[in-house]
Amino acid sequence: MFRRVVFSLRQGHEAGGVELTKAIADARILWTAVRDLVSDDSNQLPPDLRQAIASLARALLVEMDKPLPDIDVGFLISATTNVAEGLEGKS
Q1: Range(s) of the domain holding residue 56
Q2: Are 20 and 76 in contact (CB under 8 A)?
Q3: What are phi and psi of 19, to 5 degrees?
Q4: Cα separations (Å) of 14 from 23, 35, 74?
Q5: pLDDT tens, per residue, the chain with 91 residues
Q6: Are the CB atoms for 46 and 65 separated by under 8 Å?
Q7: Separation of alpha carbons 46 and 63, rounded Å
Q8: Which helix (H) or strand (E) holds 53?
Q9: Count of domains in the chain?
């Protein structure tokens, strides 16, 4: 899912307009789900990691709340790519 969102953000960044709007909507769904999952008390991740992931998710959601021309798409791509690589065991 993370890789699909990164691909969509890259394509949307190049195309702009509706494609970028769709990509950001997909990213919002992903990061809202991530935030909600790590905020659940039954989540088995270590508390510090859960807090760090939730903080990143909140920062990305704040970025996506900006008007479309003001969104730092590079930041969204970079953060989502880094998490995807972490999940894949890459560093």
Answers
A1: 2-87
A2: no
A3: -65, -40
A4: 11, 27, 11
A5: 999 999 999 999 999 999 999 999 999 999 999 999 999 999 999 999 999 999 999 999 999 999 999 999 999 999 999 999 998 987 6
A6: no
A7: 26
A8: helix 47-64
A9: 1
Residue listed under structure tokens 């190049």: 14
Q: Rounded to whole angstroms, how far apart are CA atoms 10 and 6?
A: 6
Quickly tell me which residue has 């991530």 as its tokens.
34
Which bin fits 19, alpha (ψ -120 to 50), beta or left (φ > 0)? alpha
- For the entire predicted model, the pTM comes to 0.93
Q: How distant is the alpha carbon of residue 36 from its chain centre?
A: 13
Cβ contacts of 19 within 8 Å, gap of 6 or more = 11, 12
